[in-house]
Amino acid sequence: MVETPSLACQRSIATRMAIDPGKVSNTIINFLIEKLNDQRANGILIGLSGGIDSAVLTTIALRAVGPKHVFTLHLFDRDSQSKFLEHAKGLADKLGIHFEIRDITSLVEETGIYEWPVSGRIAILRGLNPLIIRLCKVFYYLMHRGRLGASMMGHTTVARSRIIRKLSSAIRFPIMRGFAIKHIVRRQVLEDYAAERNLLLVGAANRSEWLTGWFIKSGVDDLPIEPLHGLYKTQVYRLAYFLDVPSEIIDEPPSPDMFKGFSDETMIGASWEKIDKVLYILMKGLDEEIALAEGVTAEEFYRIKMRYELSHPKREGIHHYPSIQN
């Protein structure tokens, strides 16, 4: 039956995005088994961060190959929050899988990012670091909310202001550089571990992160095999409930492990629910008014759309993942 415009307006975005969690989990299971056999690997390796995405993927991997063939690493540095280690260990204990903890502080330290933003050569200014970092956090937060942040990302008239452009570069670049280095180091550690043991390394990034560019190019969320790339963030949550992922993981706000107390939603400037609504509208070529009628503001729609359009170059790499139909 051809859907009429009036009927289309009556169907909520959530209804359109609804998934059959049992069917979806089986699709991912079959995908993992196929990739494991293709590579003739001894098992599956996952970076278990303690967040919802890696928890869902690990649980599905368990169902695919059993606990003896699921290997996980929790990689933390001096800025990581201990609660995520507790979440990861708790899940690993519950599932009975291989679990190792690695402190990557020394590897990250070699890059020099811990010395930012004050040069180590200017010792007298080191005491200002905490204040400078707090100001940088506030600036970064503001740059990712509203049209000002979107304009700067798009190099529009506002961004061409010499003062604003230099300030933005001085603040945003070192923040993102530090964030990027940690994720790249994590990927390198995981790749070395997988190569030594002939394991299939898979990433836990979801479709929402991919479409908004909320990942680091060549980092731990940009691996060739990303089984959750067909699922939006809200759909990952649906799977988490179905798979009986521990409530402390489901209830924990997703975090980029950038700053303590800063969640994904804080940094992006919108809830994942709203982000998914906008992305779904964009991917399906639907009318923007459908999202606006469901609580997304015009400002939020514009900002998320800008993120999608400006992050296109980051998505040029090849990723393998199962197709999830909605």
- Rounded Rg: 21 Å
Average per-residue pLDDT, rounded, comes to 83
Tell me, what's the shape?
globular
Order of helices and strands: HHHEHEHEHHHHEHHHHHHH
How would you name the oligomeric state of the polypeptide chains in this document?
single chain
For the secondary structure, the number of strands is 4
Helix/strand/pairing category: alpha/beta
Strand content: 5-15%
Q: What are the segments in which pLDDT stays under 50 over at least 5 consecutive residues?
A: 1-8, 117-129, 150-161
What distance lies between the first and last C-alpha atoms, to the nearest angstrom?
A: 16 Å
General description of the model:
This protein is of the alpha/beta class. Helix content is about 55%, strand content about 5%. A four-stranded parallel sheet has the order 3-2-1-4, sandwiched between helices. The longest helix is centred in the middle third of the chain and has 36 residues.
A few lines on this structure:
This protein has 326 residues and is an alpha/beta fold.
Relevant terms:
disordered N terminus, alpha/beta, 326 residues, single chain, four-stranded parallel beta sheet, 7% strand
